[in-house]
Amino acid sequence: MLKHLLVVTGAALVLTGCSAGVERVGGEAAPAVAPSPSATIAAPSPTPSASAEPTTAPTTRPPASPAGPCPVTNKTLQKALAAHPDDGVFPDSTFTKIVCFEGYAATTVPERSNSDESYVVWKHASGSWTVLSSGTADICPGVPADVIKHFRSARYGACG
Fold first, then answer.
1. Is 151 exposed, middle or buried (0-12, 13-18, 19+ CB in 10 A)?
2. Can you tell me the distance from the alpha carbon of 46 to that of 10, in angstroms, rounded to the nearest whole number?
3. Model's pTM, two decimal places?
4. Residue 148, helix vs strand vs coil
5. Most confidently modeled of 18-27, 121-130, 147-156?
6. Is 86 exposed, middle or buried (0-12, 13-18, 19+ CB in 10 A)?
7. In degrees to the nearest 10, what's the CA dihedral of 97, 81, 79, 111?
8. Locations of Low complexity compositional bias (predicted)?
9. Whole-angstrom Cα distance, residue 20 to residue 99?
10. Which helix (H) or strand (E) holds 7?
């Protein structure tokens, strides 16, 4: 951009015959007197060259899985439970406090008239969610340590 500005400024000086002095504005050379109305200065259009610097910001690496399973909703997990029933989870359960990370989800099933509050850990594999474990205490065996750490930082209490 600075190189482009200097070229335009140099062209202005040539067109004015260098009769006008050069003033420094913000550290950049600029003509002290505007060119006459008959002399129109058009900035050269940028042309691609091998030495030209890119004009766009560098892109960042896309997420590893832009269409990954997280976040997940109660409705999605209810459908998954209907498709893959689990003896430890009531078929009509509502899943709250959902924490999802790297293909694992931890959920809370609120207290019911016939059961205490419980927890369910899900795993996403082969395009669907399945119950990995459920219960009222430490139910995270088999869950990777970094996922457990994420669940704990989200205040999910069922991972010991």
1. buried
2. 16
3. 0.56
4. helix
5. 121-130
6. middle
7. -40
8. 30-59
9. 68
10. helix 2-15
